[in-house]
């Protein structure tokens, strides 16, 4: 009856009218409540000339995180309702603008939904073209395709990676990272140069080795002209960049800023519960057996949590080092060692750190384990790294800290490689493993 009345000329019935608290539309409430029949009834408006323009499938709940009906279908992992929404061509209107909790639709589906729903979102003819252009698509779709091993998804990903219109940087390196040997062999046979250096001076063969694709590495090394490391040295970690938009970074002027420098970070006040995340622009070189760096905390405002560790290139939104896959970190507020989302090491007051402390974080790439120090003393990590292996991929030193409504300021001295003027406080070498790490020498 309501639908018939809404379709009448001059009807004042608003099918998108949100509730008084969340401004959430009836369609969104039906999706959240898994009311498939109600969703079907509302979507029938597409068949009526009078009603099809009156239903907004991407109506945001402005009082509740900007969620849309699509977000609720993904959260509920309701594939039937998701398919109903995607089958309606009206879903394409404003699809790219639907962000929630600072995540675009692709990031949201990857983090909050299940594999079946994400695969459907990626391959549906109404959403595929939009989703494949969203920030983070290269690594998110690669990760997902690896999990579900969907041939159609792999084909779409490879096609998009190699599409000149996409302007993907170093596409052969992306294929090597994913271990797509058949695609690279095809490019080799076509005469394409598959030995280009990326921004870190890595070749695709280096990338294949870093991601443990042994057969692909051998193929690329066999065809690769001898690399002249004297001419094309691997880049060393030296410059910190923002992973998220927002923090203002200042660096002290020194003769050798890549070795030891004062890093200042200023974050304006924000109402959003979102930390700040910095990492070096340059990855740790692939021939490194170990990497160690130290941080001296000089100033921190508003009791902000300071975090230091290692991460990979892909970092999910609203996170801190150690809270997500591919990262681990030492957190100063509770002294915790956080590894890929898991919290290890009990809260012990002598392992927390603050202004005046010198903190070190190291990686042993032969064992895939990490270690940390405080004021020159190696801290016991017990068996925290069991079940984790940080020897696969590109890694970067990283820094994180929480944002507050008052704003945040932090000043630290970063020593990425020991010098005579700024030696490491930790004299090592000992990481508690059978194979002892070797601290990188001064340059």
UniProtKB/TrEMBL annotation:
Gene3D superfamilies: 2.60.120.920, Ankyrin repeat-containing domain. InterPro entries: Ankyrin_rpt, Ankyrin_rpt-contain_sf, B30.2/SPRY, B30.2/SPRY_sf, ConA-like_dom_sf, Gid1/RanBPM/SPLA_SPRY, SPRY_dom, Ubq-SigPath_Reg. It comes from the Eukaryota. Residues 218-421 form the B30.2/SPRY domain. SMART domains: ANK, SPRY. This is B30.2/SPRY domain-containing protein.
